[in-house]
Design goal:
There is one protein chain. This protein has eight helices and two strands. The longest helix is centred in the last third of the chain and has 28 residues, at 134-161. α2 runs antiparallel to α3, α3 runs antiparallel to α4 and α6 runs antiparallel to α8 (187-193). β1 and β2 (39-42) form a beta hairpin. It has 201 residues and is mostly helical.
């Protein structure tokens, strides 16, 4: 089913809004401790508990507006529910901190599996939005698989070796900036292997 058009700012708000809300909530509650049902929860766990339904709700609204979700979006929200839920249930922030590692390792593994089979799963996912020749897709897929693997390693290093404040900043700004920078750096590849769309002059 074709994706229904939606204003770019609405889509961006639904995709990035929960992350921004998590960051703002963490800054406000990070030094507080809440007693719920006789158990003490720090601010990180409380904000995580609020982030999970917000992420699910925003993803649901995005699906209702556009009529479709990418596999990456579905995988992300499922892992948020699973690992965020484990952190809240077990009162252990480590599970939620592992989530980006699992997400990026999963993406890298799926793309790598496709490359081993001589296919670009990225082309299947983004082919309509980004017309490239087959060799361009293979190069971009290889680069993105390595990039995702690098992000998985980086997340593990940050959450294991640095403070929670540092990890929250890394997750909110570092990962977003890295993704933006990666795709900006692919300009040369897109120019070299890009194809004109049907109807283009």
């Amino acid at each position: 089913m074709a994706e229904r058009p939606v204003k770019p700012w609405v889509k961006m708000a639904l995709e990035l809004g929960p992350v921004a809300a998590f960051f703002a909530g963490y800054l406000r509650l990070r030094d507080q401790v809440f007693t719920i049902g006789g158990t003490e929860y720090d601010g990180f766990i409380v904000v995580t508990a609020a982030f999970i339904p917000l992420m699910v709700a925003c993803t649901g609204v995005l699906w209702a507006l556009t009529g479709r979700l990418s596999r990456m979006q579905v995988a992300t929200v499922v892992l948020v529910v699973v690992f965020g839920g484990m952190s809240v249930w077990l009162n252990d922030e480590r599970f939620f901190k592992m989530k980006p590692t699992i997400i990026y390792a999963l993406f890298a593994g799926v793309l790598g599996l496709g490359l081993m089979r001589g296919q670009s799963y990225l082309a299947s996912l983004m082919g309509e939005m980004l017309p490239l020749r087959p060799e361009g897709w293979m190069i971009l897929t290889r680069r993105l698989a390595l990039f995702f693997a690098g992000l998985a390693v980086a997340n593990e290093a940050v959450w294991r070796l640095m403070s929670t404040d540092a990890w929250v900043n890394f997750k909110t700004f570092g990962l977003t900036a890295a993704l933006f920078g990666f795709f900006m750096a692919q300009g040369g590849l897109l120019r070299r292997y890009g194809m004109e769309r049907d109807g283009d002059a």
